[in-house]
Amino acid sequence: MVLVALAVSFSVSTAIFDTTYNGQSRVDAELTNGADVTVTGPTARPPSTKLGELRGIPGVLAAQPMQHRFAYVGNDLQDLYGIAPRHIGEATKISNAFFGEGDAKATLNALARTTDGVLVSEETVRDFQLRPGDQLNLRLQFARDHQYHVVRFHFVGVVREFPTAPTDSFLVANNSYVAQQTGEDAAETILLRASANPGAVVERARAIVRDIPGAKVTDLGSVQRAISSSLTAIDLQGLTRLELAFAILLVAGSTGLILGLGLAERRRMFAVLTALGAKTSQLGAFLWGEALLMLSVGSLVGGLLGVGVAHVLVKMLTGIFDPPPEGLSVPWGYLALLGVSAIASTVLAVVAVRLYSRRQVLETLRGL
Q1: What is the dihedral of CA 204, 58, 44, 152, to 10 degrees?
Q2: pTM of the model
Q3: pLDDT reading at 229 higher than 50
Q4: CA–CA gap between residue 354 and residue 114 (Å, rounded)
Q5: For the chain, what are the domain ranges?
């Protein structure tokens, strides 16, 4: 049971940690790129003029425009993102960790209900000692004269991270309100969610926006390979496959092989029991009972221990992940395969010992 518990613990902790790590690495790339495929361009010739064509690309599930402007908060010039709060999640992943309240749906709903609402970074909230409902007078550039004028907003929540946003201070507001106040409804960024190979979508998108000066199309895969500023840039795919394959062999060995060897060493006991009149079903009860006890208790203890170890490992890397993971990612498919391997090896060991014990009793006793 101790061997099974240790093997299962290693397998479970490795699988959960690697899955969480790889998933968070993708989240980091999604945060940087914004979506599976992102199209950016200047305000003068925004890619939103091609929104209909971009939505019609085969393999595109959703396309959402996002304004990228600038606003003065006091003397500090910050990035301002204008979004449709109720629809932005159709094209990109919006995590609870992006917001100070820890609830993405509630925060975006609050922004949608407040026409002049704005989400502010934690740094700005601390600097200006803001409270929900406070009025903010921001200066935005107007289309009519290209000068910055004061626009009134109301603070509705804290935003920590946002797709394509920088790591320092920035603002998120309703795109309809920003367009109304500035007289410019252009969206400088288009976020595309792709169902098929993003590479094909990228090529079609580039062909569509090739006549827009300064337009740029990026995909999630290229950004994930290019990121090299944090530990999450390390690709663990190859190492993960090696570890998980070794974990399956380890579990199979600790269940089937060790059980089989242990039972084989006690063949004299089985021979004596048979000579004393024990039935095959009675011998089978000994074998199956021991195997079930070893497998069930060892797996339960090992599973709990593995989850605990994975939780500690992920917690240790919370400061590196940006944003941190919301919870552990459990690879249920792999764990099911692990369970099947453990059960199959145990059954194989018991069946092999039962067949071995059916040899002639006298022959077995003489051999001992």
Answers
A1: -150
A2: 0.67
A3: no
A4: 73
A5: 2-25+233-367, 42-214
